[in-house]
Amino acid sequence: MTLEQLQILVETVQQISLARDLNKIIKVVRTSARKLTGADGATFVLKDNGYCYYADEDAISPLWKGQRFPLETCVSGWAMLNKKPAVIPDIYKDARIPVDAYRPTFVKSLAMVPIRSLDPIGSIGNYWASYHEPTAEEIELLQALANITAVSIENVYAYVELQSQNEKLKEIAFLQAHQVRAPIANILGLSSLFNYNAPNDPVNAEVVNRMKSATETLDGIVKEIVQKTSRIQPGQDENQALAS
User: 124 with 113: CB under 8 angstroms?
Assistant: First the structure.
């Protein structure tokens, strides 16, 4: 590893460690991936319900940004499914390459590494416009970048989940502080109007009816609080965290 490559990795870690959303991580990583190996292009691919979603790219000419392909039909999917890098010096001599998708592009050679080896959530690709044999060091650098990226994405998931739970807690606190108080005040006020000395007083029937209505309102609010509380569950899956 050269000093320049080390500096790129360090700067990348510094930037994505502060990221609070996935888009920030993607933009930093796609650029760093290209710089690390001097490639002509780099892509950031996410696993998306059985598809490879090409979320972003940094390249000398357009590749597949914004497009989706089945996991089983593209090299990024192969890297995820097999949980290991794909190294392809000549795209026209490798059966894993969907040649029709590559023919309009500049790509002649590529390297693809999974993001999070145990259970991949995406992949990072490097592409060269002339035939290139990716070295072991280049693959190690890309995989190191992918491993750093995986940790940062996990941090974003945790942050998003925490933010979501905080919002739900604020809603519950509002219900307890404001909406619960109104029916309780009504019940207390109505109880003072009840004529305990003359149970048959006609006013008592109206008081009881209104107390019943206030109690039902309170019951509904309590049920809403219980429902909101039950939704605060740790361990959201990744898609839920990003969507919330």
Answer: yes
CA 215 – CA 210 distance, rounded (Å): 9
Q: Is residue 68 part of a domain?
A: yes
Please give the torsion angle defined by the CA atoms of residues 13, 14, 20 and 25, in that order, rounded to the nearest 10 degrees: -40
For 175, which DSSP code? I
* Two structure tokens written together for 194: 């009840």
In tens, the pLDDT along 55-94 reads 999 999 999 999 999 999 999 999 999 999 999 999 999 9
pTM of the model as a whole? 0.67
Token pair, residue 147, equals: 């491993």
Which of 191 and 44 is assigned the larger pLDDT?
44
SS3 assignment, position 41? strand
Total domains in the chain come to 2
Residue 86: helix, strand or coil by DSSP?
Answer: strand
Tens digit of pLDDT for each residue in 214-227? 888 887 877 777 77
CB proximity list for 244: less than 8 A, separation 6 or greater? 160, 161, 164, 236
Give the residue numbers spanning the domain of 203.
Answer: 180-243
| Same-domain status, 192 and 105 | no
